[in-house]
Amino acid sequence: MAKESFQGPFERTSDTTWRIPKSYRQGMRVDGIVYADDRLVELIRHDQALEQVANVAFLPGIQTASLAMPDIHWGYGFCIGGVCATDPAEGGVISPGGVGYDINCGVRLVRSNLTAADVAPVQTRLVEELYRQVPSGTGVGGKYRFTPGELRRLMAEGVPFLLSRGLAVASDLDHTEAGGCIAGAEPDLVSARAVERGYDQCGTLGSGNHFLEVQLVDQIFDEPAARAMGLAKDMVCVMIHSGSRGLGYQVCDDALRDLRGAPEKYGIHLPDRQLVCAPVDSREGRHYIGAMCAAANFAWCNRQLLMWQARECFETIFGRSWQALGMSLVYDVAHNIAKFEEHEVAGRKKRVWVHRKGATRAFPADHPETPAAYKHVGQPVIIPGDMGRASWVLIGQPGSMQQTFGTACHGAGRVMSRTAAIKHAEGRRIDRELADRGVVARARSWKGLAEEQPDAYKNVDHVVDVVHRANLARKVARMRPIGVIKG
Amino acid sequence: MTYETFEHTADLGLRVRAATLNELFADAALGLFSMIVPDLLAVRPLETVSLKIVGQPTDLLLFDWLNELLYTFEVRHLLLAQFEVAVNEQGLTATARGEPIDRGRHVLDHEVKAITYHGLKLERTAEGWLAEVIVDI
Fold first, then answer.
1. pTM higher than 0.90 for the full model?
2. Taking residues A32-38, what's their average pLDDT?
3. H or E element in which residue B25 lies
4. Does the structure show a pLDDT above 60 at A343?
């Protein structure tokens, strides 16, 4: 399969939206709608991501449109940055490819009372402590071990299980999407293989684009919302990006295998095998949903344990408890997940399965699922950028409910393939370049850093600008990295 | 070397060419492990693993083969770097050799999350066989 530019019809429909009409290919049930501006659209056309937006429009029961966020790029099956809602009452399907291998990959942001001046004298020591203590990289297990029985409880109960073990506090739960536990988890449907792959990985970062960063708030755009989150200019924060590790990858893999015969069985025509799916109300569909929810709960526990270890590192370096350092969780969002939610479609309220594959929930103020502390401003939307430039916190806006099933972007989005990034990095020392920008970076491999170098990504500021202007989510704060841990 | 990686924006593609199916499957396995540990020569053949996969000799057999190797690596922390594969109409039998990860000698690279079906290809060519597979990084 070669990297080719998209040649199909692609029309501008507003300042921030573009359309692939459903007439483009026979079998598309709805249009494709892509959020982008002039700058981003040129990058987006480069690979097969737009073809994938069109492919998703084939899925039975899809509502309104096959949507894509401005950080869209070429994935497998679904594009990354894709959003698709299906209605079970209309034969709607659930598709593991619409969630991805890394079930409930997501991001959390932790604040602190520390400022740039507090960290400056210990910046390198802090990063090295985090690098030593927080397990990262390929094939690395963690320090938390759970018996098979405990692991089942962890998957069934999510972060509340860790609360009972003294590895979480109540406010951690309040500030985690779904309270750190999605209903409907069926640990018994998670295969022995998945458990084998995941049993020593809860509390480990992994590799690829996963990271732990120490960041500084460098700009505030919305004072009241920032105040509600406890964020202020010059404040030190920690951002963590990881998912369900080997356990989740295996759950997805098992489901794809289970679904190999499903399109034929249920008479579903698909343009790409990776989009394989089954009706929500089928044995295969229910089976996947139960296992996916269990993996999602595992992922929330993973990020909780990663945060717990980061708090311990700060305690070591600063000689005070994490509570005294004010290291409370601002929020945790999933960006690879499918959830059964209520949305208004063509003037009618209905419950739909919203697949978010590299896309973040962005519920507005007063939504029942927005936690009490943020009820008046909206749900925090955490957007990691790249390790040299910036990351963002936004808040969900009413426009997301009207346009995108309550969804905004999830990151910067790659623009350079991994191979191209390696070529681009030849003869360079990415760690030194980052040091020149004030970023202390530690990674298990040179290649890892090279593939994840800032130039490999779109400028996250441009991506955020589009969702802000489209009224999906509003800018609250921009952070810049000062310490980076990569697998 | 009859395998190479090719570009895919978020992940990595693996392309393999070989005269026979047996070689193709062996080389695909080398390609997969070269993503995990770039210096395959540093992996000594100290342990032997026997694998058997049932299925018609199609692209799905290739998928299942690579998947099984990934699982073996992840659960047993075993790096594999030598492969002998016999593909037949009922599936394949294989012998793989390698050793457990030794952080002192092995520099690990990518964490391969999964083998994907996206763009999965196994076809006959004038010279033999060609396979393409994209893995999730």
1. yes
2. 97
3. helix B21-36
4. yes
Quote the minimal CA–CA distance from A364 to chain B in Å.
Answer: 30
Chain A residue numbers touching B38 (CB-CB < 8 A)? 447
Give per-residue burial for A401-420: e unless 16+ CB within 10 Å, then b: bebbbbbbbbbbbbbbbbbb
Alpha carbon distance A149, A235 (integer Å): 41
Best of B4, B6, B7, B9 to substitute, by most chain A Cβ atoms within 10 angstroms, is: B9
Q: Determine which helix (DSSP H) or strand (DSSP E) holds A225, and give its type and residue range.
A: helix A223-229
3-state helix, strand, coil in chain A (%, to 5): 40, 25, 40
pLDDT in tens, A275-310: 999 999 999 999 999 999 999 999 999 999 999 999
A65-73 and A31-35 as β-strands: parallel, antiparallel, unpaired? Answer: parallel
Which chain A residues are within 8 Å of B74, Cβ to Cβ?
139, 197, 246
Q: What is the ipTM of this complex?
A: 0.88
Do B128 and B24 form a contact (C-beta atoms < 8 A)? yes
**Span B100-117, pLDDT tens digits:** 999 899 988 888 999 999
Q: How many CB atoms lie within 10 A of CB B102?
A: 12
What digits encode the pLDDT tens for the residues A102-117? 999 999 999 999 999 9
B-chain residues near A420 (CB < 8 A): 7
Residue type, A226: A
Distance CA A11, CA A15 (A): 12
Q: How far apart are CA A302 and CA A305, in angstroms?
A: 5
**Confidence band, pLDDT 50/70/90 cuts, at residue A3:** low
- Closest of A463, A414, A450 to residue A49, by C-alpha: A414
Residue A195's closest chain B neighbor by CA?
Answer: B75
Q: Give A76 to chain B, closest Cα distance, Å.
A: 5
**Mind telling me the catalytic residues of A?**
410
Strands A93-94 and A278-279: antiparallel
